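User: I'm putting together notes for a lab meeting next week and I want to include a structural view of one of the chains we've been expressing. I don't have a solved structure, so I'd like a prediction I can at least talk through. The sequence is below, exactly as it appears in our construct file.
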Amino acid sequence: MQPTEIRLLKRIARRDQDALMELYQLYCNQVYALVLRVLRHPGLAEEVTQDVFLKVWHQSDRWNPNLGRFHSWLLTMARNAAIDRLRMEGRRPIADALDFEDATAHLHSPAETGGTPWADGQLLRGLLYRLPEDQRLLIELAFFQGYTHSELAESLNLPLGTVKTRLRTGMQKLRALWEEAVGV
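Assistant: Thanks for the context. Below is the predicted structure for the 184-residue chain, given as structure tokens.
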């Protein structure tokens, strides 16, 4: 379980502003970094980061601990908010904005990383580089840059079915690698 997040969300549901500030202090850097990676504009990233925490304030009851980790829910919400902002601005994600190589010079085991959200992210990035290049690229563009399947097919000049198959196969391989790494 995630007692800190559960405790904070219960307090936020009671409109405890200090609890929101505690949650913000725990996760603001991760949310901002993800949003900045998508938007590539610090001012917009700050606005979207604030919007994400405001959404938590108004919808603290939306996270279900039985369905996944809090940080995954929060970062998914942040990614979606950043993509929505891009679309509102009429901009497209930058295809080459992802540079995981410096962050994944060494693949760490879960025991070495301590199982923290940051460590889980580092492990996941390392596992991405064990996938075939065509699958890794599609996963990065779809999940980190917000491209739809149709946009991927068009921009990479691939049939839509090929994009979907490579994404599905890549995600299955990534899941198997993850389960092997964490001992599931």
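A couple of points you could mention at the meeting. The radius of gyration is 17 Å. The chain has two domains: 3-89, 101-182.

User: Perfect, that's what I needed.
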